[in-house]
Amino acid sequence: MELEQSAGIVIYNSGKYLLLNYGKSRITANRWGLTKGRIERNETVIEAALREASEETGIKDISILEEFKHKITYYFTRGQNRIKKTVIYLIGISSTDDVRISEEHIGYQWATYEKSLEMLTFENTRKVIRAAERYLRENELVKKP
User: Fold this and answer.
1) Residue 115 belongs to a domain with what CATH number?
2) Per-residue pLDDT at 14
3) How many structural domains comprise the chain?
4) What sections of 3-145 are H helices per DSSP?
């Protein structure tokens, strides 16, 4: 089994989370998720997460809350290979709401916490949003949209 490690950011801006539409998958017509991508050689988790966020959204002004890390693991198949993927998510605060998505996405939406839970395709990603919301509330960083 191959192992793959990625980093991602829960991008938060004025009470809303940035969700990305990855389009059609084998499971669903609209797969909604968060920014993430593989950690490249000699990259830290933070460097990879910021690079992926910039590549996927065009957003560069992201302040990482380094105390928050939420790890998820899942399995998928690529060709004949079974992959065990681990993603480490961080929270990033941004004041930019202008998004320029990459070609790997077909859309985006800034969504409230409640709307995010409705839109996200996978339960493990909803767990990331729940953990991020809890962290932001506990640290009094939640803003009402």
Assistant:
1) 3.90.79.10
2) 93
3) 1
4) 45-57, 113-119, 123-138
